[in-house]
Amino acid sequence: MTAILLVNHSSNLILKDYYKDYYNKRLINTLMKLVLTDIDSKKGVIRLFGENKKGEKIIVKDDGFKPYFYVKDLPAKKIKKLKIGDYKIVSVKKLGDKHKVTVNESKGVKPISEKIKSLGGKVKEKDIPFTQRYLIDKDLTMLKGFDSDKLKKCGFKWEPRVMAFDIETGNKKGVPDSSIDEVLMISIWTNYGVKKLLINGKEFDDKRVQSFKNEKAMLKEFNRLIKETNPSIIATYNGDMFDWPFIRDRMNNHGIKRDYGVDGSTMTIINRGVSSTARIKGLSHVDLYVFVNKILSANLKTSTLDLGSVSEELIDNTKKEMDWDEFYSEWDKGNLKRIVEYSLTDAKVTYELFNKLKPILFELARMVNQPLYETCRSSYSSLVENYLIKRAKEFNETIPRLPSRSTVGARHKTSFTGGYVHQPEAGIYEDIAVVDFRSLYPTIIVSYNIGPGTISTKGLKIKVDGREHHFNQEEKGFIPSVVKDLVKTRAEIKKELRKKKDPLLEARSYAIKTVTNATYGYLSYPRSRWYCFDCSESITALGREHIKKVIDKAVKAGFGVCYGDTDSAFLTLGDRTKKELEAFLKKINKELPGIMELELERICPRGLFVAGKKGKKGVKKRYALIDEEGELIIKGFEFVRGDWSNISKKTQYRVFQALLKDNSRSKAISVVKKVVNKLRENKVPIKDLVLRTQLTKNINQYKSIGPHVAVAKRLAEKGYPVSAGTIINYVVIEGEGLIREKARTVDEVKEQGLKPDAEYYIHHQVIPAVDRVLDVLEVSGEEFEKQKQEKLADFL
Fold it and tell me: What is the reported pLDDT for 553?
């Protein structure tokens, strides 16, 4: 149920009501306080999408706000006379050294500003999105309360109605084709009592299951559920690229409308380069996969971002899995019990994952003042830019224009030296103290007042690669000031969290950390409004200087240094105590400028660093540690990569456990021996031997034919649809010939009783996963030295 409130420039309230119940005065009063869920503009009129405490959705229209920009170096009398077609200037207001120029329509900004430029005027802030400008000027915040009568913010506690759904489609031969394949099932899970599975053409006796005679009837019911149960948010996992486009095509095939928008508009698929997004006006579609991929993935242990892997790590919820051949076999036989549980679990896990990430998503949306739909699809740079635009007015900062294509191209060609790396010596170390700078680059920005607005011909001088950069130290810059606020706010939140755990404060802290730490990268992002090469180069130079000083001082203080990278140093305590370490950190922090601080991250009883291909020098970002709680911390190894077989990853993990947790070299070697024997005895499950590789282009574009391409070609010849993006699963079997000639699908291996190639898995999977780890034993392990083997392969 939707009503439209029209608020015009004189603040007179007019109610255009499509439902007579809304003429009830008491009900109209309840509409005044809403939560702001979405915003857009249509024909120059701002539309605010809101929801009241009853969950009823309201559209507030404001036709009294007009677009504007700023002009310098041109008299007001020359500006006022301008008119281009139907576009005209509404007002010109003097503001210091510039004029605020307001036009009658947003489409008129470009032609009028271009004309002003041709007359010699300097135009500023002409490319700020109309809706973003509105939110800033009206001081309204997304996902917070506002009074629809006064158009002012107000308190509002919102409990959104959330629906998660997932579809299963029909195609026994691989990638579903929405032009011919049907939707078999739609699983739905909500926080308002609807938990059901819609099934196409099958009967199943379960109160959670609703059966339909055909796909069309099922899709109509899905439509009805969205419209009548009135969700505030619809959550999916990869819904942008799969579920929604597939549903759109199938509904188009049946002539079914997708008019879910609060304004009655159709759910649309918007193409954004190689990706697409599913947009519903006034109803937030949150694709969790996009958010995980763009924002969270860098902090996850898993590199495989499917729903099962991500949910297992974030919510400790193992998703029920079924092989596709097993799924279709059970479907054809009518054995639906496992299929029903599998499908319902997909929707349930998607809902639970949304619930876990909701506080972070909401805090980010409020912080950068974007609709939830945009926030969950934003990159780090987009989040930073929107936050800076939001804060610019507060600091009287003129927002720079977006760079031109040629400017972006030129910026892409520039480069500068990154962080300092202290190369490790390969080996196993004990009593490692990991110390790192708290938000190194953001605190350098603040402490040295580095930003585009502080570049000067005098002041702080930083020499980098023969170049000199100067930064004014007398007046705080816009970006340093904003970053300082963020760092200070997060420190206060962390102080509160030490007193009492609070999920909302934790989410706020994470949101602030995300934007703060991304600010440095934003300064060097070629498409950034506040791009600054001099700033980025200076920040990294200062970062290198500070971490080198820490390492030098640590050595002089009697600590060992086994590794260092950008903002952290791995110190070995030796005979030094934790108390002496803390005294060392305290001394360092007294000497640091501004808000910079060196912290003790953790003490690890044991750690392992492996050698590179040549010599004994260790490899950057490739190490394993065990902390005081017995948890393994693994960086840069196959265990956290998705392109190795399970047997190689499991073996590597067990070797780490043996070396770091059990401190047993002999046990580590025994782990590998047992796996090798199992492979040769054909006792390793097929699922642990499957290799997964994604096609990066269409198969006819490959010049070099790898095993996954060879398998994909055979699948295509059999009628299976394969294309760029398809993940190919295969197993290498025994026999003569090249690896690509021995690659088979899992179905082929099972159906034909083919035997996996044990020697391939030993020498190309297991040994490569552990040889550099066990090579360390030649340096520090007696057992391995006694074998007098040059290569692990010979030993096995």
Answer: 96
